[in-house]
Amino acid sequence: MDKINRHPERSMLDRTQLDDVLDAAAVGTLATVVDGMPWAVPMLYARVGDRIILHGSTGAGALRQVAAGAPAALCVAMLDGIVVADSLFDTSANYRSAVVRGHLTVLTREESAAALDALSDALIPGRSAEVRGHTGKELAATLTIALPIVAGGWTVKVRNAPPSAPGADEGAWAGVVPLRAVPGTPVPAPWVDPHTPVPESVRRLAQGRSVAGFARA
Amino acid sequence: MDKINRHPERSMLDRTQLDDVLDAAAVGTLATVVDGMPWAVPMLYARVGDRIILHGSTGAGALRQVAAGAPAALCVAMLDGIVVADSLFDTSANYRSAVVRGHLTVLTREESAAALDALSDALIPGRSAEVRGHTGKELAATLTIALPIVAGGWTVKVRNAPPSAPGADEGAWAGVVPLRAVPGTPVPAPWVDPHTPVPESVRRLAQGRSVAGFARA
User: Fold this and answer.
1) Which of A97, A191, A203, B63 lies at a C-alpha separation of 20 to 30 Å from B176?
2) Domains in chain B, start-ordered, CATH in brackets?
3) Does the keyword Lyase apply (chains A, B) (predicted)?
4) DSSP string, A36-76
């Protein structure tokens, strides 16, 4: 993550690798320019084919401004390990990251319903089939935006390796402390009868078989 | 994370809360404006008092351009749970996030050594005391930059709650799937004798007592 642009071998050109990184995470930082100044917020997202889907409230002024054709960059990063060398200089991190650059578009209400289902299913696979559909009121309250993935409009970088080389102190320990995000036991809301069965999608999510946003070790 | 700006109760004004969020993570997205376009990269960072410390290679052109007094925003986000409601509309996420806005400054070589120690110790607490100091050559190759934390220049948002309210289907399960990042067993580099003792800082990191970047459940 340090010394970015200095390690061309960490940059990848394969679209499949971009998709793998994007699909493994659930939260990214959307950056744009507002009145000449950088503007950045964390957002849930999902890749659907060649588009990244984002959403917010139609009442969110900043997002609406951003959505009006603004140039944007979505940055996604997962920290997969701490790389420990025998010097601080060679201490590093294992990570997967992607930046997608493009111009945002606003989806129509008709497009929104399917895109929002896909966004939910990226977070909780299978969930959209377990619940009722979106109401007109809900769709009217939701701003669904898309960032297209176009050739030349993205960068993906991955580091997954031990420290770069033994340092001067060859007898010293060096290596990697892996990091992994894991789901815990589902916690029912206070009003939920504890005997209520946990939905299949939530059980799968909690078992870590399909958690978006995390290293799938 | 959705409907940002629409939930003022999720915005906090207490600097202590900002520090808590910043200190719990290790990677953020640095966003700025280059030639009128948004520019964003993931970076390791550490808060040291009223400054956020970042670093890169002096050879990294983009970072150097950014560092020259450019307005910047650092965005940090941790996904702490998936909030499951009985409708997709009320599905949400528990998270901690912060955005710090300001102008970057480049540290002198003298300031850099201490700042880089602090950056390492934020990632691997106690590590700087276990290894040799920085060499002049290393300091010359490293661009250390700071983003000041100033009043009015930051936003912190936290959601840590069940779904907002029971939906129409009161018998349906609703709740939260907590997410937590955990360190694994340290993996020695291929050239390291397996009998080499693991440094104290690395053992502590692997035991999860002081892992930066993660929910400390």
Assistant:
1) A97
2) 8-160+172-181 (2.30.110.10), 183-212 (no CATH)
3) no
4) TEEEEEEEE-EEETTEEEEEEETT-HHHHHHHTT-EEEEEE
